[in-house]
Amino acid sequence: MAQFLEIKSDYPNALLFYRMGDFYEMFFDDAVAAAEALDISLTKRGKHLGQDIPMCGVPFHAAENYLLTLIRKGFSVAVCEQLETPAEAKKRGAKSVVNRGVVRLVTAGTLTEDTLLSPREHNYLAAFTQVRDQSAFAWLDVSTGDFSVQSIASVMFGPMLARINPAEILVPETLSDTLAEACGENDTTLSPLAPSSFDSASSLARLCDLFKVQSLDGFGQFSRAETAALGAIVDYLNITQRGKLPLVKPPVRESEQSIMEIDAATRRNLELSKTLTGDRRGSLLYTIDRTITAAGARLLERRLASPSTQVTTINNRLSAVTEFLDNSPLRVDTRQSLRQTADIERALTRISLDRGGPRDLLAIRQSLAQASTLHSALSQLHAKSIEEMVKDLVGHDALISLLDNALNDDVPLLARDGGFVASGYNATLDEAKTLRDEGRKVISALQATYAKQTGITSLKVKHNNVLGYFIETPATHAKTMLDEPLSQDFIHRQTTANAVRFTTLELSELETKILNAAGQAQALEVEIFGALCTEIMANGPEIANTARALAQIDLATALADLAASENWCRPKMTDDRQFKITKGRHPVVEAALKKDASGSFIANDCTLSAGTKGDKPIWLLTGPNMAGKSTFLRQNALIVLLAQMGSYVPAEAAEIGVVTQLFSRVGASDDLARGRSTFMVEMVETAAILNQAGDKALVILDEIGRGTATYDGLSIAWATLENLHDVNQCRTLFATHYHELTGLNANLVGLENATVSVREWKGEIIFLHEVKQGAADRSYGVQVAKLAGLPNAVVGRAKEVLAKLESGAAEGAGKTQTLIDELPLFNATPTPVAISKESAVEQSLQKIMPDELTPKQALALIYELKEQLQD
């Protein structure tokens, strides 16, 4: 317990996994917390200060599953291993305690094992700091080595957190309380560090030491805040990995102007990577993800979260998609080859941290071989972006050859299990494995040799735990064996009643080799494994480049496959404020309709171009609920996102001037934890838009002001629309039920009225989902209520109330009190709904048998019905 308490004192905020034989044991408060979190038994072991010591434990071989549960529940875990064997400890004294020490601190942002990570999602460790008037946000995926940093305004901490979505973020202790709320909303683990971790001078030294350079100038110009944030991550890795750092790629400095700004509310409203219920299924990412490799899926997630605002970058990505779209057979073959590759980014990281296994080596061998094959196939393509990818696929011939010669095709998970080194690679290993695996054959051959030498056919070579291997002959042959010349070779060991036992120098040596063969073979294989890992790490940067190229090719072919199967078009990207979508569609809704075979999606145009006289960059959209207004709003935002991430888009044609900011306020709910009503949430999100949106932004707003009284809401919506037109001057889709706003197009020259078409038939409404110019005459709310299943009496009463309210509004405010008197709030006796009687024409039609009419009779009937109508 003294050793446990001493080690635990260095890690007061982590659970200590204390290795004891085949188990990780936990004691005291750690045991109580872990037992509850893992739902395992809490026992006791010994006493401390007169009290029972709580204890629980988990098997060493299944520790990863328990680690994952603990990390997900917000714990960090210090893994304490035995640093020597019990036999080595006894050399210091019979009662010496085995030396132990923490080899790793497991936290949410430092996971590397496949079983602890989602293969298709990044797991970022981030850092945020402020240095005087500068702020910076850095992030690293420890499992892949991707390292980035960006200078941001301090108010952009929330949007950056939503964009990167790190598992864990490091902040100075002085900022932890200020940033805790935002981290909690994003479900990110907050880890405060001492100010020394963020010291810019110390951080610079750490980074230079990590990358073995004298200056970071070769990677870019980094501000003091950026250097401090990057250095804090490296310092945390030193703490958690106990000095054994992963393969970290040189940091990439991202510019705030090169990435589309999307705040947390917009990401949530548009359901980019998760639906409003938190599911991946049903999100935009889930719908468009046709990548084959895990690295390709992570690249898709990254690009969708950070659409580019650089026309050149966007067009290069689109050109790569076009190449594969135009070469369908090549695309199919390429995707088939990609199926044979593995996640070598994460395999490299595990190897660099000594957590890899033979399967990681095999994955790298197979992936590099496929990369070489892909290079030959793709060299015929000449798009600049593809040429950049293809050049990084080769240059590994020597390593591939080494791994081919060294590895079997079927290998175990762990190096200590052995059996992964191919025969013929190492002669000493082959001999050891032969003795280990074929010891009986070798002994049998030696027995035959001795039988022939002595002439005793009944001679046997046997084994027991006392003598080991020995030669046994019947007692009747004892004299022969003990006399010259055989006594010179055969050494007497034991005599029994019925047999005499001997040994030879050859048998003793063979016994030693056989007994040590398994251990020797295991040690040799572990040694060879280490040598292969060293060779791989010597080529680490080049392998990482190949991994990145494979991910880019995977994404380009996936987007091409998506465009081909869904009939998407290549958008035309410009640097101005054009916006013209022809027959655009909502990708998620369209996919759902196809899956359910419930109909086809109605495509619609949208033109929000700005910058020249006569342009109408703001559309005021009216129409009933359920008609598709929100779908129309969202689909245009999603088309912009897809275009700027480098994808084809669901439309017949699209011309888009780069959008630098995307804002969406579609739907809202209570935020009870912070005491915010639905209306307050709506106003906070609207305020953020009006205060931040620039002229190259795209804003979509749905039902501003609906959470308060009618006139209050109308006033807020009116003023918001005017501000967007006069001050923000951005491209906007503004949906509303306040039909009074449609009159503003007379004064706001950039405003266009649009509506979603419906048709009314026999008191029912039919949604046409077609957006056209003009304004809706009403909202059809009562009809929608009827479709929702409200009782007929309620629907009928609502129609009556609506008719009287509309009549009162038409006659003026003086009718208000009369309406209140006529329509008491709790009228218990609703007026029956009038049911119309069948007309004479309808009665006549009911009696007609069309198949029995002659042409002359049918003509006569038409005249008869016409006369009845006139009557």
Automatic annotation (TrEMBL):
Domain DNA mismatch repair proteins mutS family, which positions? 697-713
SMART domains attached to this UniProt entry: MUTSac, MUTSd
Query: Known Pfam families for this protein?
Result: MutS_I, MutS_II, MutS_III, MutS_IV, MutS_V
InterPro entries per UniProt: DNA_mismatch_repair_MutS, DNA_mismatch_repair_MutS-lik_N, DNA_mismatch_repair_MutS/MSH, DNA_mismatch_repair_MutS_C, DNA_mismatch_repair_MutS_clamp, DNA_mismatch_repair_MutS_core, DNA_mismatch_repair_MutS_N, DNA_mismatch_repair_MutS_sf
Give UniProt keywords alphabetically. ATP-binding, DNA damage, DNA repair, DNA-binding, Nucleotide-binding
PROSITE patterns xref list: DNA_MISMATCH_REPAIR_2
Positions annotated to bind ATP: 623-630
Q: Name the job this protein performs.
A: This protein is involved in the repair of mismatches in DNA. It is possible that it carries out the mismatch recognition step. This protein has a weak ATPase activity.
Q: Which PANTHER family match?
A: DNA MISMATCH REPAIR PROTEIN MSH1, MITOCHONDRIAL, DNA MISMATCH REPAIR PROTEIN MUTS FAMILY MEMBER
UniProt family annotation: Belongs to the DNA mismatch repair MutS family.
Q: What is this protein called?
A: DNA mismatch repair protein MutS
From which organism does this entry originate? Answer: Amylibacter marinus
